[in-house]
Design brief:
six-stranded mixed beta sheet
Length: 383
């Protein structure tokens, strides 16, 4: 999915301000876009007075992080919400299109409240969020909205100490820390992925499908929630005669260092298509959209018709509707998650000083199901 222009330009500003000066070619490589695209963005940002451009180099006009750090060290009070200069830090992983809509939802609420947004993109490395949070705090942000990558449980646990001790109000987006953990009492807003999986399974059962496979990622908290929900729901439903869980893609796993030792030595996971054939499945739920679209393409190459011979439900609904066969998809309320997270953060920031802290809130929003052309009644051959 193409990244929105305004979000890409916010990323450019974040990189330039954190480093002082960056080559246009390096920006293009990091953002995975063409040099021409970056030059066009830089020209617009320079025209708006937000940065300075030279021969192949982009320079920051105001060293945001340094200025914020000096002010904090000198005891300069932070701006109040709505005051000139007040800002909220948004920290999200790079190359994570699922979060684009969440960011737009949060942005709408914050801008309506007169807050400036400081977007920080965490690199795809373990612990990549912490330096971004430190930069945001040094620049003087009033609060944080954050969606840590957390590819494995080890990465999640490694963040408990520092993330739980931040001195500004913080809200987790699309992340639900484990019960009893150091972050259990941190404000959070996320989709109810159990309900999303429930919608998918109920839809397939209503069409007569009794042998269903989940092909899911295993490299994010959302992926693990989807896997756990499917296993519980499929095991409880008497109509489901056979079910299985496998990886949607061979690369959809945590880094080796983040996997439990028992999983590191496990047998290789079977290919999705091979498993579907072996189990005699007539339907599959795939997390996420790209893996679902690729499975449908493989079906077409193998002469398997969707939905006449096999039904597919995607989980995410970011690009599911764009396939040659538009995919039925579970759609988490991404924009509303962002809005709710921003509203929750503003609620904390606006609480009068000295007043008793507001109770911690853990908000869950229900996904819905978008029925399209990739699901249909089970065929007689599949019964």
């Amino acid at each position: 999915m193409r990244e929105p222009v305004d979000l890409r330009r916010q990323r450019i500003l974040g990189v330039v301000r954190s480093r002082g000066a960056v080559r246009v070619g390096d920006l293009a490589a990091e953002l995975e876009v063409s040099v021409v695209t970056v030059r066009r963005d830089v020209e617009e940002l320079a025209r708006a007075g937000q940065l300075r451009r030279g021969h192949g180099v982009v320079r920051s006009i105001v060293p945001v992080e340094e200025a914020g750090a000096v002010g904090a060290a000198a005891g300069v009070p932070r701006a109040r919400p709505g005051e000139d200069g007040a800002a909220i830090g948004l920290v999200v992983p790079e190359r994570h299109s699922y979060l684009f809509e969440i960011l737009h939802g949060a942005r709408t609420v914050l801008e309506e409240a007169g807050m400036r947004i400081a977007l920080h993109i965490a690199p795809a490395v373990s612990g990549g969020e912490r330096p971004m949070v430190e930069q945001a705090l040094a620049s003087g942000v009033q609060g944080l909205l954050i969606a840590p990558r957390w590819r494995g449980l080890g990465a999640e646990e490694a963040d408990y100490g520092w993330l739980g001790s931040l001195e500004v109000p913080t809200v987790l987006m699309e992340r639900r820390p484990r019960p009893g953990s150091a972050l259990h009492a941190l404000d959070s807003v996320c989709s109810d992925h159990w309900y999303g999986v429930h919608l998918a399974v109920e839809h397939l059962i209503s069409l007569g499908h009794r042998r269903i496979v989940l092909g899911a990622r295993d490299d994010s908290p959302t992926a693990r929630a989807v896997r756990a929900a499917f296993a519980a729901i499929a095991a409880e439903r008497a109509e489901v005669e056979d079910w299985a869980v496998t990886l949607s893609s061979p690369t959809a796993v945590p880094e080796p260092a983040e996997r439990p030792r028992s999983e590191s030595a496990a047998e290789p996971t079977p290919d999705v298509l091979d498993l579907l054939r072996a189990r005699g499945a007539t339907a599959a739920v795939l997390h996420g959209d790209v893996d679902a679209l690729m499975l449908v393409q493989r079906f077409q190459e193998a002469g398997i018709r969707v939905p006449e011979d096999f039904s597919v439900v995607a989980y995410d609904d970011v690009v599911a509707a764009l396939g040659s066969t538009p995919l039925t998809a579970v759609a988490p309320p991404k924009t509303e998650v962002g809005r709710a997270a921003a509203e929750l953060l503003l609620h904390r920031l606006r609480r009068p000083a000295g007043e008793r802290p507001a109770p911690v809130r853990r908000i869950e929003l229900l996904p819905d199901l978008q029925v399209r052309g990739s699901t249909g009644p089970v065929s007689e051959a599949g019964e």
